[in-house]
Structures are given as structure tokens and as C-alpha cells.
Specification:
mainly alpha, 12 helices
Length: 237
């Protein structure tokens, strides 16, 4: 665990020594703030946190590939992956440490976005269970997206390629329910099970369904394991 935390600390330093993280944060709060102002403040709208959470989750679709594209790609590009992969640290510890760093950055975005419900509370009373379960849904969705971004970053030494691959995979998970709607029938229900947007609906209504929580956790674990497998193959080449 100590070595995992050491990797996490190193990755967090890399995040905040790089202008990419600051550009990502600026882009996130600029876009989220714009939509919040346009949809709520002028004039004050219904006191409902769900549109805010929906907007922020949509911004994640663009910002998370930007924040994760360098996680492993940078190591591959600089050649430092050979030192890392031949060190006493296990691949699992490396991947877990990098993921925890990405998750910490995402948590900062989620916590920072609490500013918007705080402003909304000045105009009326927020439904507290709905607020916190909506934010839980947003955090879990972002955490799953981060694992996808980490996996994409392990596939290529080119950061831009990793970012595009991450966006493409996330776009499939984002739109898969819409694809099911065009097909209909049992296929619609089947594809809907894998929608990262659809799985958040009940939580955003204030209904805690542990199957939805389990879906996001499973998705996180699947892409972390895939990242480990990709790096294991690189180690034995």
C-alpha cells in the first residue's frame, strides 16, 4: 500500500506541475459555470440539482480524456516505462496508484462543483437525498470514466491518440442507450444495462439502487484489470 501511495503522490505532482491539469480545470469550470448561469441564474429557475449534475457529467465526457491521456502514455513516450516495469513495484500497484491520482483530481472537480448547489440553496430549499445521491452518481460516473481513460492511456505512447481512444470508448457508453432506443425490443433493454447515463437516473431521482452502484464499481474494476493486462504484456515483450 505504501508503494501505491508513493505512485499516487508522484502522479499528483505530475498533474499539478503540468499546464494540462490547470487547462482542464479552467475548461471544466468555465463550461459548467456557463451552462449553470444560462440555465438557472437568468432568471432563477426551479430549485432542482439534476440539470446541474447532468451538465457537469456531460462536461466529464470531454475533460476526462484530457486529464487521463498522459497517465501511462507519458511513461511510454519517454521510455521510463522500462524502469517502472522492471522495478520491484508490481504492475497492480503502478496502475492502482495512477488511478487513485486520477480519482483524486476528479474528486476535486466534484467538490468544486458543489458551489452550484450552494448558490441554488440561496433561492430555495434543495432536496437533500436527491442532492447527495445525484452527486454520488456523478462521482461514480466520473470514476468509471477515469478508469476508461487510464486504459486508453496504456494503449499508446501518443497522448493525443490515447485521448481520442478514451473519448471514443466513453462516447459509446454514453450513447449506447440511444442506440438501443433505435433498435427497440429486448436489445434495447440489454444495451440500456451498459449505459453510464441511464444507470445514474434512479440515483439522480433520490433512489438508492445498489445495482447501479455495483455497475459503476464493476466497470471501474474491469478497465483497471484491462490496464494491468496491457502493461503485463508490455513487461514480458
Amino acid at each position: 500500500m505504501r508503494r501505491t501511495l508513493a505512485i499516487t503522490k508522484k502522479e499528483l505532482q505530475m498533474y499539478f506541475y503540468s499546464p494540462v491539469a490547470y487547462a482542464g480545470f479552467a475548461f471544466f469550470f468555465l463550461i459548467a459555470g456557463y451552462f449553470f448561469s444560462a440555465n438557472f441564474l437568468y432568471p432563477p429557475n426551479i430549485i432542482d440539482v439534476r440539470p446541474v449534475v447532468g451538465t457537469i457529467s456531460f462536461v466529464f465526457l470531454f475533460i476526462i480524456p484530457l486529464l487521463t491521456m498522459r497517465l501511462v502514455s507519458d511513461e511510454l513516450r519517454q521510455g521510463t516505462d522500462e524502469l517502472l516495469l522492471t522495478s520491484p513495484i508490481s504492475i497492480t500497484e503502478i496502475v492502482t496508484g495512477k488511478y487513485l491520482a486520477a480519482l483524486t483530481v476528479q474528486l476535486l472537480l466534484v467538490v468544486g462543483s458543489l458551489l452550484y448547489p450552494l448558490i441554488m440553496s440561496l433561492y430555495g430549499t434543495l432536496d437533500q437525498p436527491q442532492l447527495w445521491l445525484s452527486y454520488l452518481a456523478m462521482f461514480l460516473m466520473g470514476a468509471a470514466m477515469m478508469s476508461v481513460g487510464l486504459f486508453a492511456s496504456s494503449l499508446s505512447s501518443h497522448q493525443m491518440v490515447s485521448g481520442i481512444v478514451a473519448f471514443a470508448i466513453l462516447l459509446v457508453f454514453w450513447t449506447i442507450e440511444w442506440l438501443g432506443d433505435t433498435v427497440g425490443g429486448k436489445i434495447k433493454d440489454f444495451l440500456g444495462m451498459f449505459s453510464i447515463v441511464g444507470r445514474a437516473n434512479d440515483l439522480q431521482k433520490g433512489v438508492l439502487d445498489f445495482t447501479d452502484v455495483l455497475f459503476y464499481i464493476t466497470l471501474i474494476l474491469v478497465f483497471i484489470v484491462l490496464s494491468i493486462q496491457v502493461l503485463e504484456r508490455k513487461r514480458w515483450r
